[in-house]
Amino acid sequence: MTEASRPTLPRSGRPSADVIADLATKRNADVRWADGRAFGMIYHGGPGVDEVAEQAALLYLHENALNTRAFPSLGEIQSEVVGWTADLLNGPSTASGFLTSGGTESILCAVLAARERAAYKRGVTAPEMIVAESAHAAFHKAAHLFGITLHKTPVLGDWTADVAAMAEAVTGNTVLVVGSAPQYPQGVIDDIQAIAALAADGGFSCHVDACMGGFVLPFAEMLGREVPPWDFRVDGVTTISADVHKLGYAPKGVSVILHRTRELRRYQTFVFDDWLGGFYASPNLQGSRSGLPMAAAWAVMQHLGVDGYVDLTRTVLENADRMRAGIEDVDGIRVLGDPRFHLLAIAADPEADEPIDVFALGDELATDGWFHDRQGPPDSLHATVSNSNSGVIDDYVGAIGRAVAKIRGSEADDRSTSYSTID
Predict the structure, then answer these.
(1) Distance (Å, rounded) from C-alpha 308 to C-alpha 301?
(2) Which of 11, 91, 102, 254 has the largest CB neighbor count within 10 A?
(3) Within a domain: residue 422?
(4) Which residues contact 107 (CB under 8 A, 6 or more apart)?
(5) Other beta carbons within 10 Å of 229
(6) Residue 17, exposed/middle/buried by CB under 10 A (0-12, 13-18, 19+)?
(7) Do 77 and 300 meet the contact criterion of CB atoms below 8 Å apart?
(8) Across the beta sheet with 239-243, what order do the strands follow?
(9) Residues 289 and 309 in one domain
């Protein structure tokens, strides 16, 4: 941006109606998530969920969880949401945690706690962590921020973490090993039992990234779906992250970081009392914390209850089942691996008579209003199926069939991927 083009704040204020009208206009080019055409980023629980979240948000528009002595209600809200989540994830009575701004912050907190625990318990000064190449990019961010050497290990043919390769990467400086339930790129669940056993045997931490699955897998199990062991019932799991603002259907941004015990939780916190402002304690990476998303999460979870989440999860899984089946019926494309829940990746089928360029497919679908993230390797289109997509799956399957036929033989010029952006 040049200095000449840089926007400037108007000298005089404007009427609120004009301001809101301008904001509404800015949204015109945004993805049409309310029409069910976005497979990710927005997770919509329905009008009733919206209503209770909006009312809670207005009540807590200005409140700040920086100091829960000033706002004890936010302390109660945090404790209760953490407790409900720990119960869903089969945490022991000692399980404890905090609310964060989202999955990335929960992951950062888990990595930081693992580093501090290893330094205190084992004297580790050159910390290392082990993640599969399918693990979320936030673990690489955490390693960069916290001075941890990261060892990236391969995945197997079914896209799950290669635990044997992880075991080979363990050293005396290992502070953390990571499993995903499910991992984001292909939507499969890593062998959490085997990964946690590495941690238990080595005396270091094991984090389960359930940011995508924490509010799906418990309810899928209640519905009778086969779910491999992944939560605190697995010995050796020390921390789990679960995002309420994904399939928990709360507004952005709120996530839960859970520790198996309160003692483990203390390695996450920062306490400082050597400054003129008095005692300072921070449970996660933020200082001031908005009460709005915390209260909205509390309200949504209370509004839905277990039965509401079970109903939503049933719909989500049925949507995903139909979507996978429809994709597999289209010549030229396939679903990568064997995802059983709500995430999947669409790629070219190399065994087809005429394999297609999946990025060209994504571009064509985008012209019809269907939005996917591009990812790779291998080149693929990612979809997180949620309640937001209810009622449009048949339309989508028809659209993808038409799009494949239209772009067969063509290639996209743009090969970039864009899970997230800077500007």
Answers:
(1) 9
(2) 254
(3) no
(4) 136, 138, 139, 142, 207, 209, 211, 241
(5) 15
(6) exposed
(7) no
(8) 96-100, 255-259, 239-243, 205-209, 174-180, 128-132, 149-153
(9) no
- Specify the number of domains making up the chain: 2
pTM of the predicted model as reported, rounded to 2 decimal places: 0.94
**283, 338: one domain:** no
Q: For residue 139, is it within any domain?
A: yes
Residue 40 identity? G
Contacts of 368 (CB under 8 A, 6+ apart): 399, 403
Q: How many CB atoms lie within 10 A of CB 122?
A: 16
For 266, the domain range is: 53-303
d(CA 179, CA 139): 11
Separation in Å, CA 367 to CA 323, 360, 370, 403: 20, 11, 7, 10
171 close to 128: Cβ distance less than 8 angstroms: yes
Cβ pair 75, 83 in contact under 8 A: no
**10-residue block means of pLDDT along the chain (423 residues)?**
77 95 91 83 89 96 91 96 98 97 97 98 98 98 98 98 98 98 97 98 98 98 98 98 97 96 95 91 91 97 97 96 95 95 95 89 92 92 92 93 91 80 65
* Cβ(172)–Cβ(193) below 8 Å: no
* Assigned domain for 40 exists: no
Bridging pattern class, strands 239-243 and 205-209: parallel
Q: With contact defined as beta carbons under 8 Å apart, do 260 and 249 qualify?
A: no
User: Does 229 map to a domain?
Assistant: yes
